[in-house]
Amino acid sequence: MVPNGCRRSRKAEEDILDEIRKYKEDHTKEKIDYYDAFKGQEEKDDFLANVNRLEQAKIWDVIIEMVIRKDLPDEFEGRDEWVALGTDFRRLVEPLDIGNYYRHLKGDGIIPYMSVRPKRYKFTQRWYEHANVTGFELVSESNFVAEIEELMIEVETRKNKTREEVEEGIERIKHQVQKWRSELKDKCKDKDLFWGESILSKLQEKLAQGLQ
């Protein structure tokens, strides 16, 4: 039995996810995708997407804390509907959290997002991996854009890596994205996934401008 509070949270979660999904789809039809639009925060819908992101975080942080405190049934984390909802949430919203993190340069660009990744994404990723009997991936289809952001910072400011090392990082990401796209092709809604085309293209342009 799932507590009524969680049922209400699930309905609220689904409604907000639909709004974020529409935000993503609307930007798919434009020159700027939802990741870049969200980071820019120039339009009203970007502001509303941020409000929805914060609402999502609030709901899931409460759910995860309930899981940690064992306030929910033992089978809760394995329930199909919650695994599916957690996966949709992670794939749609984590890129926005990453965009928000690097937009504000939290940690002054020194602490990578992956070092402070919220539990709401770690737990929902674990639920998905357990349900699908897959191995653990530190970098997943919902957070790899953070690795691209780190390479961008490397190119723009740190310059601790050689051009070859950055290029190797780019190729590794591109290969992994291709692998995910192939594996997930028939298992999920592609429109819920962000494949990082815009920021990856920007990184390659920056690199072409002259990391020595």
TrEMBL record:
Coiled coil ranges: 145-183
Pfam families: EDS1_EP
Residue ranges of domain EDS1 EP in the record: 19-202
Entry keyword set: Coiled coil
Transmembrane segments: none
Highest rank taxon of the organism: Eukaryota
GO BP term (any one): defense response
Name the record gives this protein: EDS1 EP domain-containing protein
